[in-house]
Amino acid sequence: MLYLALIHYPVKNRNNETIASAVTNLDIHDIARAGRTYGAQGFYVVTPLYDQRVLVGQILRHWETGAGSVYNRDRKEALSMTAVKSDLDAVIGDIRKETGKAPLLVATTAADCRATLSFDDFRQNLAKEERPWLLLFGTAWGLADEVIESADFLLEPISGKAGYNHLSVRSAASIILDRVLGR
Amino acid sequence: MLYLALIHYPVKNRNNETIASAVTNLDIHDIARAGRTYGAQGFYVVTPLYDQRVLVGQILRHWETGAGSVYNRDRKEALSMTAVKSDLDAVIGDIRKETGKAPLLVATTAADCRATLSFDDFRQNLAKEERPWLLLFGTAWGLADEVIESADFLLEPISGKAGYNHLSVRSAASIILDRVLGR
How far apart are CA B93 and CA B85, in angstroms? Predict the structure, then answer.
């Protein structure tokens, strides 16, 4: 059982300072659609900013029960597994309530030599279906160190060619899902 | 040598009619960044609409030589391999001029049983480096049949779990690049 969380706080800005980032509408759509395509159990948009949670709630309602649900039923299906939470503890509590178990947390990063979990090991662990797993994606310039350090594992980075590795979080989440849950 | 093209005409709308779609800013950024990460040679945004080409040109100039080029050099690097063209013939001509050879065209689709190229075969062919290849992505509800039929190959679709397969073009392009050029 794999759950996804898109973290908007605490994340880093370009100067390595901890910030709360703004929610990007297409992040929600793209990661929900990829999550649904690969069989993730749920997707959490995490932000402590009240206004942003209201905004995300409006977007979700539009597609789940509003005009969007009639216009595009596939989108409705993807977004019906999406929820908004104020922090990571609320996400963990929600998963514990749903599954009866606390999830193992896997942080992601674009480039970090401290990785403790390979794609192959992650894939094999997910296939065992013993525990819920929660995969954490950072917006802006990535997850703050405190999130990475508090996670159970740090997933190996996606390596590109020629040293350039600057994928959007939408691309990275899609590729990671394909690597650990794809054919 | 792999080139990418994001097609805005001719593509299908939800009613299977042929339309010209509007350019989405994040499509340009995400596919350029993924293309650069995986070592694609070039990325073409294709639209016959003059206003849209002007808009894309402004976006590219902002990041290549304008304020964006100072703000984010990684983005500059990705977008410097991006160009806008009015139609597929112009793309093919450009690649022929650059490489001395006409590219082999590979169309993509979300679900089609007529696929003639597997991910494995595509990967092996790219590794040979004998010919330029041009991978075509459709916006809106996908490439029009005439584009699929005029291509040399139709790539097998990305199969998800449980029959749901509604990835954004940003996600699909990222996953396909990872499958054919990734580790």
Answer: 10
| A-chain residue closest to B74, CA distance | A166
- CATH number for B2-181: choose from 3.40.30.10, 3.10.290.10, 3.40.1280.10, 3.40.50.300: 3.40.1280.10
CA-nearest of A109, A123, A112 to A38 is A123
Question: Using CB atoms, which residue from A26, A75, A165 is nearest to B26?
Answer: A26
Do the beta carbons of residue B108 and residue B148 sit within 8 Å?
no
pLDDT for the residue A19: 97
pTM of the shown model: 0.96
Q: Which residue of B has its CA nearest to A32?
A: B167
ipTM for this model: 0.95
Q: What is the pLDDT of residues B130-178, one digit of tens each?
A: 899 999 999 999 999 999 999 999 999 998 776 788 999 999 999 999 9
Residue A33 to residue B174, Cβ atoms within 8 A: no
Residue pairs spanning A and B at CB distance below 8 A: 107
Please write down the HEC assignment for all residues of chain B.
Answer: CEEEEEECCCEECCCCCEECCCCCHHHHHHHHHHHHHHCCCEEEEECCCHHHHHHHHHHHHHHHCCHHHHHCHHHHHHHCCEEEECCHHHHHHHHHHHHCCCCEEEECCCCCCCCCECHHHHHHHHHHCCCCEEEEEECCCCECHHHHHHCCEEECCCCCCCCCCCCCHHHHHHHHHHHHHCC
